[in-house]
Amino acid sequence: MQHDFSEGKVSRQILAQALPLTLAQLVHLMYNIVDRIYLGHLSATDSMALTGVGLIFPIVSLIGAFTSLFGSGGAPLFAIARGAGQEERASRLLGHVTTLLTLCSAALIVVSYLFRRPILFAFGASEASYSYADAYLTIYLLGTPFTMLATGLNGFINAQGFPRVGMLTTVLGAVINLVLDPLFIFTFGMGVRGAALATVIAQAVSCVWVLRFLTGKKVLIPIRRDHLRVTARMTGEIVSLGVVGFIMMATNALTQVACNATLQRYGGDLYVSVMTVLNSVREIFAMPVHGITSGAQPVLGYNYGANKYARVKEGIRFTTLVGIAYTLLAWLLVLWQSRFLVSIFASDAALLEAGPPALRLYFFGFVFQAFQMAGQSVFQALGDAKHAVFFSLLRKVVIVTPLTLLLPMMGLGVNGVFIAEPVSNFLGGMACFVTMYVTVYRKRLLEANA
User: Which helix (H) or strand (E) holds 9?
Assistant: First the structure.
């Protein structure tokens, strides 16, 4: 296993990081995806249980946003420090992130429990769907510290050249979730509460695995007790870069709230369920692109820190081309098998009728998401927080959220919500990539090399 990213073929280094990471992220999706699949086929409740679970998407995204604020902020800095031979600084970054994740998870639990009813109704709940959402969320929140530590610290395992260990972080939890879900939901008759409990137990196992490895003897830079104390200066460094991932996920939550609230107004609970299915399919198909761009980040950051600028450019080219090729194939598959993809998550006749045309609209031009992810990951890997934050805000806040609210009012109804996504992918994705190409690929790396 190679831990020096400045040697060997760049594409091989990226794939060595990305493939296990992609598999790990896909498996991680199974925590919630499997819940939705089982709950979508609960005949006694039609699609209402699926609607209820869909309503907590923004809360899950916000938990992920705070995880990313510290995890994705610290891991690239950690990789750059390793590449520059600054192991003491790298160790302090790891300790800071561990403490920040722990404190933040406790605060999120308290706030979410106290205000969950007004939050869920603001997110598009009806009286019929609220009971399902509340039942799931009440238990799910207990796993917040587990999921934040497991997810937020896993990047530090990958950044040290242990992608297989990082993959096992989520594989272990997902396997447990797969086994416990049907047992709790159907055998014990716990319904949505059983799905949430299975998820919490799975998250706890993943968390234990990460902490044991990062405090063990095999890791290159472990968590050290004397580095757990946080300082304002280093916290500021982490947050200034992590705000990129935070805004990306927080704006996802904003978009989900806008979608659910608008669909509740124009289509009712049925179309909130449709959006739950669409989000599930999008997460599955977008994850490999996330995997390749996330896998590229430690490689790009390490080589940038080691002044290997030609390797950075090679990594950018490889990551972009792979992302474009994959998203084109994924788009064609969605167009061809839209009804089958919806049927995975639901058996309700009304949902099977409304879902496929909505899915085809939502995925139109999916290829442009590869440009957004490629540009965003390069900015983040090289520590360019300003550009990464700007283009995340541009796509989600400036483009997609206003369109989600305005297009239905212009006579498009629920279709306006689904059309907003491909428009934002094109406008935001191309703007992000072209700017990265001009400012980083053609200018910064060329000037640095000179």
Answer: none
Q: Contact 361/414 with Cβ under 8 angstroms?
A: no
**Gap between the Cα atoms of 132 and 146, Å rounded:** 23
Q: How many CA atoms lie less than 13 Å away from 274 in the CB half-sphere?
A: 30
Half-sphere CA count of 175, side-chain side, radius 13 A: 9
In 3D, which of 201, 199, 222, 200 has the Cα closest to residue 211? 222
- b/e burial code for range 321-344 (CB count within 10 A of at least 16 → b): ebbbebbeebbeebeeebeebbbb
Tokens of 172: 């272990």
The pairs formed by 334-337 with CB atoms below 8 angstroms and a separation of 24 or more are 334/281, 334/285, 334/359, 334/360, 334/363, 334/366, 335/360, 335/363
Please report whether residue 5 resides in a domain. Answer: no
- Looking at the structure of the chain, the number of domains it has is 1
Report the C-alpha gap between 401 and 395 in whole angstroms. 9
On whether the CB atoms of residues 414 and 266 are closer than 8 A, the answer is: yes
Residue 141 to residue 371: CA distance in whole angstroms: 34
Please state, in angstroms and rounded to a whole number, the distance separating the CA atoms of residues 304 and 330: 32
Here the tokens at position 64 are 């992920």
Residue 81 belongs to some domain of the structure? yes
Looking at the domain assignment, is residue 39 inside a domain? yes
Within 13 A of 291's CA, how many CA atoms are on the CB side?
A: 27
| Rg of the chain in Å (alpha carbons) | 21
Give, for all 450 residues of the chain, the pLDDT tens digit: 455 677 788 888 888 888 877 776 676 677 668 888 888 877 655 678 888 888 998 999 899 999 999 998 899 899 889 888 899 999 999 999 999 999 999 999 999 999 999 999 988 888 888 999 999 999 999 999 999 999 999 989 988 888 788 778 878 888 898 899 999 988 898 888 998 999 999 999 999 999 999 998 888 999 999 999 999 999 999 998 888 778 778 888 889 999 999 999 999 999 999 999 999 999 889 988 988 888 888 888 888 888 888 888 899 999 999 999 999 999 999 999 999 999 998 888 889 999 999 999 999 989 999 999 999 889 888 878 788 888 888 988 899 999 999 999 999 999 999 999 999 999 999 999 999 999 888 766 655 555
Q: Is residue 3 part of a domain?
A: no
Range of the domain at 288: 10-449
**pTM for the structure as a whole:** 0.78
* C-beta separation of 60 from 224 below 8 A: no
